[in-house]
Amino acid sequence: MAAIFVRTILLYALLTLLFRLMGRRQVGELDVSELISTLLLSEIASLPIDDPDIPLLFAVVPIVVIVCVEVALTALRVHSRRAKRLLGASPVLLIDRGRICQQTLGRMRITVEELFSECRQKGFGRPDEIEYAVLEENGKLSLLPKAKNSPMTPSDIGQKPE
User: How far is residue 135's CA from residue 16's CA, in Å, rounded to a whole number?
Assistant: First the structure.
């Protein structure tokens, strides 16, 4: 029983250290490869905890390899446009000049109702109030309102804030 306790603490410490090396992101912002790595790491780490007959090294080596591959892929995406296009997602236009891009919605597996819901949550009742809606790389929706629907700023009324 003590061995399982020690193995659990060691794997927990290793995973905590390695996840910090991978960077800080919220779960909703994980890239597909980061999510897959997270799932694999949790599965691999649980094996020697469940079965004391499995050597601890059988978990440590694959965990370190997966984290190294993930860090290398992230660095590659940061430093290479070609790798970023190949390995990552890119922003997608869902509303273009107030018109819904139906084909793009279908390709992204987003319903019109889901799009409307997101627009309402951001303060827009109709898509024709929006100049552009962009589905970002992290899965969030960015809305750029038409000029007439933009919030008023001090410069609109000739004021200069301090």
Answer: 31
Q: What is the pLDDT along the chain (162 residues), one digit of tens a residue?
A: 677 788 888 888 887 777 776 665 555 566 777 778 888 888 998 988 888 899 988 889 999 898 888 888 888 888 888 877 777 667 899 999 889 999 999 988 899 999 999 999 988 887 788 999 999 877 789 999 887 666 666 666 667 777
Q: How many whole angstroms separate alpha carbon 153 and alpha carbon 90? A: 31
Ordered by start, the domain boundaries in the chain are 2-87, 92-149
Fold exhibited by the domain 92-149: CRO Repressor (3.30.240)
Q: Which of 16, 85, 98, 6 is nearest to 52 (CA)?
A: 6
Residue with tokens 């250290």: 17
Q: N- to C-terminal Cα distance for the chain?
A: 65
Separation CA 127–CA 93 (nearest Å): 13
Q: What are phi and psi of 54, to 5 degrees?
A: -80, 125
